[in-house]
Write the structure tokens for this entry.
Amino acid sequence: MRAAVVRGFNEDLSIETVRDPDCPENGVVLEVAACGVCRSDFHGWVGGHPKVTNGSIMGHEYCGTVVEAGAQAKHKVGDKLIAPFILGCGDCPACQTGASNTCESAIVPGFGAPGAYAEFVAVPFDHNLVHLPQTMSPALAAGLGCRVTTAWHALTDRANVRAGEWVAVHGTGGIGLSALLLAKMLGAQVVVVDVVQEKLDHALALGADAAVNAATQDVPEAIREITKGGAQVSLEALGIAQTTNASVECLATLGRHVHVGMPAGDGMMEINMRAIYAKQLAFYGTRGMPSWKYPSLLSMIERGDVDLTPMLDREVTLSGASAELRAMKGPTRPGTAVITDFSR
């Protein structure tokens, strides 16, 4: 099969012909229809993730059609499926209590296992996979495996966002735009933060109530003024100290910070603990979403309760993924990129 392989950090992915994946006994092989290009992939591409090394195939936001099924698989050949990026084992206490996104035995294609920057991908623990709605395009579906689901879990399970509350979103990439659209659906007021005015204008056009340009404004002060005292919920969607502290400092007393962005490098950063202490803030970490929540979220999207099509900006080729990763070294354009052509 054709695959985009990491051969050197910060270098273009190598388009190679590699061995087709073996089918897991407890899973399936998918012919990949689409795979998102995510900032988490960028962290691996620059050498910031220990499980991305020479020879790795990245790609964790994917959907496709089953072409082979193992003896213990739950799905069959021909099924069109979407996969959460965290594949919980299904048997451990975390999985049994509904928190499969915290499973210690989880497998994450693209990070320690071959991912979906390829024509085919092996998916163990296929009980995590769900059927792709007929009305949903593969390109849109591919982005749900990380961006939308992570944002939904952060807003609902971690932050418990309520109608009328102010939600601050720091970073308007895929997760940030998803958080904006979903928070508005929940009845919240949303202020978005970025350093690219074009992306802020895009977010305002999608329904954001206010926007703050971090390149020219004091973010916490601006948000406290806009919200008349601070946001009740703040989502950090980039993974760096600057946005983390802005998120903490913009909150009202008893506010909730949710850390969504994968921390860069070794993950160590200085945090304004005085703000957390003095305002008695809650500080939540979050990663992914339990697989059992997928059907209800997909049904909500299929019914038209929320329109997520604006977050998909462009479809690219397999070889075009390198340019998307390089672009993440600086300010990026609005919307997300999805690989839909694996032939070149």
